Amino acid sequence: MKNSITQDWWRKSTVYQVYPKSFKDTTGSGEGDIRGLIEKLDYLQDLGIDIIWLQPVYVSPQNDNGYDVADYCEINPEYGTMEDFDELAAEIRSRNMHLMLDIVVNHSSTEHAWFQASRQSKDNPYRDYYIWKDPAPDGGLPNNWQSKFGGPAWQYDEGTGQYFLTLFDKTQADLNWENPKVREEVVKLMTFWAEKGVSGFRMDVINLISKDQDFPNDDGSVLPGDGRRFYTDGPRVHEYVKEMHERVFGPYNLVTVGEMSSTTMENCILYSNPAEKEFSMTFNFHHLKVDYPKGQKWELMPYDFEQLKRLLSDWQIGMQQGGGWNALFFNNHDQPRALSRFTDDTKYRTESAKLIATTLHGLQGTPYVFQGEEIGMPNPYWNDISELRDIESKNMYQILQQNGKSADEALAIIRERSRDNSRTPMQWDDGPQAGFTSGTPWIKVDERYPSINVKQQMNDPESIYHHYKKLIALRKELQVLTDGRYIRLDEAHPQVYAYARVSEKETLVVMSNFSDREASLQLPDDFHTEYVEGGLSKLLIGNTKLEPALQAQTVLTPYASYMWIIR
Ligand code: GLC
Fold this sequence. Notes:
- There is one protein chain.
- The chain is α/β, with parallel strands linked by helices and 567 residues long.
- The chain contains 16 helices and 22 strands.
- Strands 13-12-11-5-2-1-15-14 form an eight-stranded parallel β-sheet. A five-stranded antiparallel β-sheet has the order 16-17-18-22-20. Strands 7-9-8 form a three-stranded antiparallel β-sheet, with no helix packed on it.
- Strand 8 and strand 9 (162-165) form a beta hairpin.
- Helix 5 packs parallel to helix 6 (237-249), helix 7 (265-272) crosses helix 8 and helix 11 runs antiparallel to helix 12.
- The model is unreliable at 1-6 (pLDDT under 50).
- Bound molecules: alpha-D-glucopyranose.
């Protein structure tokens, strides 16, 4: 199973993730729109972005900000029109960039015409588009599976006396992939967008589409015991993905990334090894659970640094050996800002944001930048639950209190964990509402925008923005970033994460001090002898005024992070 690294252009690309609701508003509605993205394409081109992942802009009641799709082939009027979309696609192409759309087909909105028909009667032709079950013999729920947003995963339908499955919000009904007609519809809608010339798809929670058809109760023997083991990387998932590849991804030569919830490396290798003809690459989330005590997202603990490093390393080595390909990310629209979570977003904010960037962009895979990350936007400080918008946060705020937490305790947890942490408006300048809207933003703008914004950073060559720009350019220039072998160098150091990427011609070393204290790292002797001694090392990028040479022993100031090349 060999990689065709040179053929796959996206292996040298960087993807920029646009959360359209919060990107740029051109109408004064307080919500971003497609024309806003068109306005900012020059900005993304300047940054060096190759692929823009545009999150869902389809018709939707927006209960989950567009991940509840009511019509897969129409644009939500709040975001614009199909003409706007076509113009966007053309403008992206004319800049030699690529557009990647978000495809959400584990579930649809209950407002989708298919679901509306499906709930009409048990013998409606659309009934089998969704997963309907009789109540249990005692009249209760069909099984004990839990929704990812809290509460049971089943909703009762009075009209027909059955339950339907909803793994997310109660208005997001899971589609029944066992039904070939559903798979045909998915091919059809993806073909619609492929025909419009988009370059690829990001596939939402795509590893959940195949459910164990016995729908067993979860006895809790495997944590977290919410039923996920019966539908995660389920029995027929690879068959379904191969079908999509054969019918759409392959024929249209698309770049695809699968969002893999609670997955395994074994499965991600299958999903992303080109020989398998499934996806180009996969997102996994294991490294973003290192601050979940026993896997519990809604409890707090300081993150486990050693575990973070181990997970990143294991996935680097394992995916490389298996010929898979990682989508690299620390941030997205479902995660608090990594800057606030893993480093220092106040005193050392600039150093920290650059450290996060260098650490990630030295790894093997395709890096993703989530809007605002490139200017070091931190988590906003939430004063009150009324400021939050996310359905998951609002549900959990209630559930935490039902489970005995005080309102203050619940808010303290939400403040750290909420998905809204990353969803505040993009900070363009120091004008009203950070230049995001002339109206009232749908969610508050972070107070720190006067000093953290795009305009200021574009004018400052030392800014976080310029740091990202440099890293993105390096990925295109240096072959070792694409295919160099990964070696971990820090031997369980309590403050430092260090690794190398090694190829025949050159060696890259990345070293980051994830603490506010000075640290020093001794390179392993064998590594030093083989790769450093005798070579010429050059600092490629760093985040301090110093320009240290790579030595057997290197001292790192607080949050210092460097990347060297040795030739
Ligand atoms: C994915 C999306 C998330 C959404 C969920 C349900 O995890 O990233 O935002 O809520 O799927 O579609």
